[in-house]
Amino acid sequence: xxxxxxxxxxxxxxxxxxxxxxxQECAALFDADAWSSPVVQPKFDPSALPLAPWxxxxxxxxxxxxxxxxxxxxxxxxxxxxxxxxxxNGIVHAVRSTIPPFLTLQLLFRYxxxxxxxxxxxxxxxxxxxxxxxxxxxxxxxxxxPKGIDV
Length: 151
Prior knowledge:
Layout (H helix, E strand, L loop, with lengths): L3 H8 L7 H4 L1 H6 L2 H5 L25 H22 L3 H12 L3 H16 L3 H23 L8
């Protein structure tokens, strides 16, 4: 602002409203009609933008992925044929041979539970405290404001 009258108008525009008639610069700056006109948004045509390298790329890696998967299937089929086992029977046999029987798993869980019940008191207290500490840390990390892309 240039003069003292401009400063007075800025301090109290209602009582110094006559200043706009005297000062052309303030009248142009604080004209109510100029501020009330709607803002014209420029037209935006996304098709006028150039394509990014990945949008117009002619090379696609899907044939390579499909070819690799077919090669693995052919090799697996050949190995099943050499072994003399059907593919479905071979997979079922592999799954059954790796998973222990249900009775074994039931006994394992029972022995672990009994072992934890008869563990020394300091060990039980240490497990409980560590459980609380780890969960408190996780809750604090979840409540923290994110860093990086959202900042």
